[in-house]
Amino acid sequence: MIVNNTDKVYEYLQDNTLNKYKRYISLIIRRKEHIIDTIYAKDIYPNYKKNMETLKTEYQDLFTNKISFNDVKLNGTKVNVNRENYNDLIIDKNQNTRKSVYDIYTFAFANISDILGDMYIKKLELDLMVSKKEKYNSLLSKKLFELELPDEILDKLISTINKNLHVMHEYTDLRKQLSGLKEFHVYDSSISLCKIPKIEYELIDAINIIKSSLSILGNDYISIIDKMFDEGWVDVYSKVNKRTMSFTCISYVGVPYILINYNKSINSVRTLAHEIGHAIHVYYSKNNNDFEYFEFSYFLTEIASKVNETLFNEYMIKNCSDIEEKKYILNNIISSIGNSIFGQTMLTEFEHTVIKRLEKEEKVDTNYLNDLYLEINKKYNGKSLTIDDNIKYGWSKIPHFIMQDTYYIYQYSIGTSIAVYIAYKILNNENNMKEKYLKFLKLGNSVSIEDALKVIDVDLRDGKYIEDAIKVLSEKIKEMKNL
Ligand SMILES: [Zn+2]
Questions:
Q1: 303 C-alpha vs ligand 1 centroid, how far in Å?
Q2: What is the CA(350)–ligand 1 centre distance, in A?
Q3: Contacts (Cβ under 8 Å, ≥6 apart) of 426
Q4: In angstroms, rounded to a whole number, what is the distance separating the alpha carbons of residues 205 and 164?
Q5: Mapping DSSP to helix (H, G, I), strand (E, B) and coil, where does residue 233 land?
Q6: Could you tell me which of 144, 120, 301, 316 has the C-alpha nearest to residue 213?
Q7: Which residue pairs, CB below 8 angstroms and at least 24 apart, start in 176-185?
Q8: 3-state DSSP percent of the chain in helix, strand and coil, to 5
């Protein structure tokens, strides 16, 4: 057992021929102090797993079978609201209809919010129990230990966002202005604020646009895109039984295959650029690292894809002559940055506050969750959003809180901030960012996340990269207002 004889292992590692394995083995050894004694572990982990599975099965059953929604009247006809038609109904042209749909949907969750609250708290308590047994100071410490990151990065994210909430308020205000509504409510937040461009892009044109928009990354990067299509890495069109979500495979053997469902719209061209980002990151990583280190952390995954999206969007804005298309793309940049950076941090702040309270063994119940969610929503959205009291049930509609890993969503905020920061540094030709970024894409897991980010001058402890990304958002909002 490596962890029982660490001195001996370190002695062996002095041998230079073992250099390659130093990081790999250190990553195992560092877990030593958090390993639960075998006698206890054989009960703790199976129990945790069993309880978590039961909780998730019950939740799934409640969410899919047991929840029931009332009918809404649409042009005189009664329509039953459900999870399948909700997304279509909530973008109805009539604000009163949207309000009715939202109220009906929310009412169904409010009815079972006590059960959902208990489930969420139970899930967190299970996580907390294990992290305590594993001798972590907190659940956050455990999650960040796994990523070799210090605890302070989450508080830095939340505090930087809180310092810049006026930009989030401007974002909400812009949405209100574009909607033309007197009062902008949460049920108005899904309506389309810009006309969807009717322009269709044939695949060959899409590939050429993507290559032009990414040409700033250099010839090698572009030659991989050519290779990708010449060698058939991309499964382009939708077909029966094909997954509807876009996807890029990560494998050391073979090539990173891409699955998309291309439909000629500008959004599907952007999705293709996004997946190409993932594929080339995997390609570079596996071609520059041994098997032990080729798989980079999930923490870094969305950076390469979002960099490509941003470069694509900027290229389109510069090169399109159609004002509606320009507005549409600008709106996409704004909502993508706004929702990822501010929206996901809002949910993170909610989760983090609940967990800290549980760790202090203070009382958390459904009422507390409702009040907290309402307060955080008010704080993030500012005065342009008219607050309805039933917003407070919002947390209960998000399956993620119960079904996914705790302390996970904040990675979207950090990933998007870093990607925006990189893309505009490259576009403005600042600090040799192109060279640094290409080097970063080749690192895999050969160094820690923090060291990989040092290559692109990002320090998660100082939050400057978030400030830079927020500055971009603020400029784009101004640009949109002046269009
Ligand atoms: Zn992605």
A1: 8
A2: 24
A3: 216, 217, 307, 311, 433, 434, 437
A4: 39
A5: coil
A6: 316
A7: 176/384, 176/385, 177/481, 178/331, 178/480, 181/95, 183/386, 184/384, 184/385, 184/386, 185/95, 185/98, 185/99, 185/102, 185/385, 185/386, 185/388
A8: 70, 5, 25
- In angstroms, what is the span from residue 278 Cα to ligand 1's centroid? 7
Rounded to 5°, the CA angle 94-99-104 comes to 130
Q: What is the largest CA-CA distance in the chain?
A: 80
Among the listed residues 217, 313, 244, 240, the one whose alpha carbon sits nearest the alpha carbon of residue 273: 313
End-to-end CA distance of the chain: 65
* Distance (Å) from CA 308 to ligand 1 centroid: 11
Q: Give the position of tokens 């939740």.
A: 59
Show the tokens assigned to 145: 């230990």
Enter the pTM of the model: 0.94
CA of 415 to the centre of ligand 1 (A): 11
The β-bridge partners of 248 are 258
Q: Ligand 1 mean position to 275 CA, how many Å? A: 6
What is the spatial distance between Cα 468 and Cα 220, in angstroms, rounded to a whole number? 28
Q: CA 106, CA 111: separation in Å to the nearest integer?
A: 9
When pLDDT is averaged across residues 294-309 and rounded to a whole number, the result is 96
pLDDT digits (tens, 9 = 90+) for 377-399: 999 999 999 999 999 999 999 99
DSSP string, 381-435: HGGGEEPPGGGGGGGGG-THHHHS-SS-THHHHHHHHHHHHHHHHHHTT-TTHHH
Q: Find the 468 Cα to ligand 1 centroid distance in Å.
A: 22
Q: How far apart are CA 466 and CA 158, in angstroms?
A: 10
Q: Convert 279-317 to b/e letters by CB count within 10 Å (16 or more is b).
A: bbbbbbbbeebeebbbbbbebbbbbbbbbbbbbbbbbbb
Name the token pair of 89. 């109904």
Residue whose token pair is 């830095």: 156
* 93 CA to centre of ligand 1 in angstroms: 31
Burial of 4 (0-12, 13-18, 19+ CB in 10 A): exposed
φ, ψ for residue 46 (rounded to 5)?
Answer: -60, -35
- Amino acid type, 476: K
* Phi, psi at 99, each rounded to 5°: -60, -45
Query: 55-88, pLDDT tens digit by residue?
Result: 999 999 998 888 889 999 888 889 999 888 998 8
